[in-house]
Design goal:
Blueprint lengths: L4 E7 L3 H12 L6 E8 L13 E7 L4 H11 L4 E6 L3 E2 L3 H12 L3 E10 L17 E3 L1 H6 L7 E4 H6 L11 H11 L4 E13 L4 H7 L3 H12 L5 H15 L6 H10 L1 H7 L17
Parallel strand pairs: 1-2, 1-4, 2-3, 6-9
Antiparallel strand pairs: 4-8, 5-9, 6-8, 7-9
Helix pairs in contact: 8-9, 9-11
């Protein structure tokens, strides 16, 4: 039977962590999948794993994460595709949970929660703040307020291809830009309450580099500029609200942004046909 889901792992010069990421995919409970590894400039060879999961390795050079993800997307044979960064891990329930929701609700995109952990530490961090949103249907302003983490998103392959995949010019936020463009196209998006992946925070990660350079605010503004002309009129207005809120705020972390946008949800809702009202008023998104 052809694989129903393609799991794409992108990797660049992390031979140890990619092995753990790959092992976590092999340990997922859903059996009908294939695995595509996009090795950007390396020589990684997957170890024998004794399972029926077909694994292919694609080679690139200086692709960057967005183009590497697009290479995996282009090679995907599954009806759905799911991504994993090489320094993170999937939880065993990830594909099974998200695919069940996609089937039940005929969704184009489903996502769950991502827990955050500090690599080689027992320090506990808050989950990615998508936990603030009620489960169920998701609209453009929900995604604008808080993007699901790439490792926790299952998306219909043809739907993601139809918008051109990931935008390499949306630096660091190529996945978020894709989810926003899908929401703008009225894709059916559902959120589930289960934690399905772990994002491992470390000093060599892209997000850590942006925080250390105090570049989060400028990257957000670049994303919003990039989205101009790509969205419907009402959602362009919503992005303009977000841009003004960011310009007026001190934002060092992504969670700072979510806190600002949660506060601005009423303005967002008034800007267009948004679903910002689904954001919970009972929790704080702020984390250091």
């Amino acid at each position: 039977m052809p694989a129903e889901v393609t799991a794409v792992i992108t990797t660049h010069a992390r031979p140890e962590s990619i092995r753990e990421a790959l092992a976590s995919v092999f340990a997922e409970t859903y059996p009908n999948m294939e695995c595509v590894i996009v090795d950007d400039g390396g020589t990684f060879e997957p170890p024998a794993h004794g399972s029926s999961i077909e694994t292919r390795v694609l080679r690139g050079r200086q692709l960057g994460v967005a183009r590497a993800r697009n290479m995996g997307l282009a090679a995907a044979r599954g009806e759905f595709v799911i991504f994993l960064d090489d320094d993170d891990v999937a939880l065993p329930n990830r594909i099974a949970t998200l695919l069940d929701a996609a089937r039940r609700f005929r969704a184009d995109l489903c996502y769950g929660l991502t827990r955050r952990a500090v690599l080689h530490s027992t320090l506990t961090l808050p989950h990615v703040p998508t936990a603030l949103m009620a489960s169920g249907g998701v609209g453009f302003c929900d995604i604008l307020t808080c993007a699901p983490h790439i490792n926790s998103v299952l998306v219909r392959t043809s739907t993601l291809r139809s918008i051109g995949g990931f935008d390499a010019a949306a630096h660091h936020f190529d996945d978020w830009a894709a989810w926003l463009r899908l929401a703008d196209q009225n894709a059916v998006i559902r959120r589930v309450t289960e934690v399905v992946a772990e994002w491992r925070i470390h000093g060599q990660g892209l997000s850590a580099g942006i925080m250390n350079a105090r570049a989060m605010k400028s990257r957000l503004m670049t994303l919003f500029d990039r989205l101009q002309g790509q969205l419907s009129e009402e959602n362009t207005r919503a992005v303009a609200v977000a841009q003004r809120a960011v310009a007026a705020s001190e934002i060092l972390t992504y969670d700072d942004y979510v806190q600002v946008m949660t506060t601005a949800r009423a303005t967002l809702h008034a800007a267009g046909a948004c679903l910002g009202k689904r954001i919970s008023t009972h929790a704080s998104a702020h984390a250091a």
